[in-house]
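Task 17 of the worksheet. Students: predict the tertiary structure of the chain below and write it out as structure tokens. Keep your answer in the requested format; marks are given for formatting as well as content.
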Amino acid sequence: MSRKINETFVEVACAGCGRIQRVRASKVIPCDGYTCSWGRCKQNPDFKLPEVPDGWICVHEPYAAGGFSGWTIRPATQDEKRSLERAKAIRNAALIKRLRAN
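Model answer:
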């Protein structure tokens, strides 16, 4: 594997513990934030991703910056909103069924 002479590296920090990883800029997927594990921090178990407002979704990107995973919170598309409504209806029906069984 050959090394490019003019490679640009960036430093990406874990939002939970601050651990820094140097990665080639071309290998980084732009995200709102990064964690050293999938949607969580290995070193700081108390770290939580930011709350997602109603009508928005959190998109996870595995290996967005080397070994770090990334997340982006963005407005949901119309299709995603309809999908969320269907999922909520299924969840609510299951909860009601479970409550009636008890």
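Marker's comment: The mean pLDDT is 92. The first strand starts at residue 9 and ends at 13.
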